[in-house]
Amino acid sequence: MRSLPSWHVFERVAGAYDEVLPFFAAIGERLVAAVGPGPGTRHLDIGAGRGALVGPSLDRGCAVTAVDAAPAMVARLAADFPQARTLVMDAEHLVFPDASFDLATAAFVVHLLDRPARGVEEAFRVLAPGGRFAVPVGAAVRAPEPAAIQDDMDALFAEFAPHLPPGGGMGAAIDMRRAMSAAGFVDLEERHIEVVVPVPDGDALWDWCRSHGYLAFIEDLPDDRREEFRLRMRALARAGGVLQRAHAVLIGRRPRPTRREEST
Ligand SMILES: C[S@@+](CC[C@H](N)C(=O)[O-])C[C@H]1O[C@@H](n2cnc3c(N)ncnc32)[C@H](O)[C@@H]1O
């Protein structure tokens, strides 16, 4: 069982995160395009990391606030995106008043929280009535690339997962539709996005695996299994290989009060 909150892993990898392969940046760009916020949208990005969603949102003229629990991530966010408001903050305890934002996003964050439902409730609370919350959830690739290595990677993780100690690795499966509905979000809809990111060679693939949350899995493997895992992972990077991933961007809306609620 991991004794420290998951953000401690990201604190250690902040310098390398999305620098080896621009995987999260590619997803962030498509996610923001799928949500399509207009100029002036007050956008809160929760667990912003290195700003995969922050740059595209600023490019669209949004007023971006980016928060993350890892101070090293926030230091880089502040340096890379001086136009954004950047703050160290726990997603389970947002310090903003109710109804402060028009759009909240949390990409690959909620499943890392100790209390995911609390994180979704906080996003709901800080959104203005009519505001939207968008998160990526897993989806099937629609047009598989022949050179995609994702299936082989997933199979390798599945093969080695039984070697983890109890509670090893990071993150828990979460039913986001259910969590968002329970928090009060309505009008849930999904928009499909896909990314294809070239993997130059085995070293790049291994360095990428250690530059984000996969590091927790690697570190938690027993020493004798970790080296085998490294060799097998490196060997997956064949010539022309690509990371291909699909997501459904799940978007929910905080309902506006009805006339009757407004008058009471
Ligand atoms: C997988 S990264 C995703 C970063 C970014 N959203 C992206 O798409 O690249 C998860 C991020 O969530 C942050 N995080 C983890 N636990 C958190 C918490 N309790 N509150 C706020 N951020 C947290 C980590 O520090 C890390 O930057």
Give the strand order of the largest sheet, numbering strands 1, 2, ... along the chain. Answer: 3-2-1-4-5-7-6
SSE-based structural type: alpha/beta
Bound compounds, please?
S-adenosylmethionine
Measured between the Cα atoms of the first and last residue, the distance is 48 Å
CATH fold descriptor: Rossmann fold
Radius of gyration: 19 Å
Residue runs with pLDDT of under 50 for 5 or more positions: none
Number of separate helices: 11
Integer average pLDDT? 95
Q: Number of folding domains?
A: 1
How are helices and strands ordered from N to C?
Answer: HHEHEHEEHEHHEHHHEH
- The CATH superfamily appears as Vaccinia Virus protein VP39
Main sheet attributes: strand count, strand direction, barrel closure: 7 strands, mixed
Helix proportion range: 25-40%
Number of strands: 7
Taken as a percent bin, the fraction of beta residues is 15-25%
Written description of the protein model:
With 264 residues, the protein is of the alpha/beta class. The chain has a single domain, classed as Rossmann fold (3-Layer(aba) Sandwich). It is built from eleven helices and seven strands. It has helices at 7-13, 23-35, 54-59, 71-80, 116-126, 150-160, 176-183, 202-209, 214-220, 223-235, 259-263; strands at residues 42-46, 63-68, 85-88, 101-105, 127-139, 186-198, 242-253. A seven-stranded mixed beta sheet has the order 3-2-1-4-5-7-6, sandwiched between helices. α3 links the parallel β1 (42-46) and β2 (63-68). α8 packs across α10. The radius of gyration is 19 Å and the shape is globular. The structure holds S-adenosylmethionine.
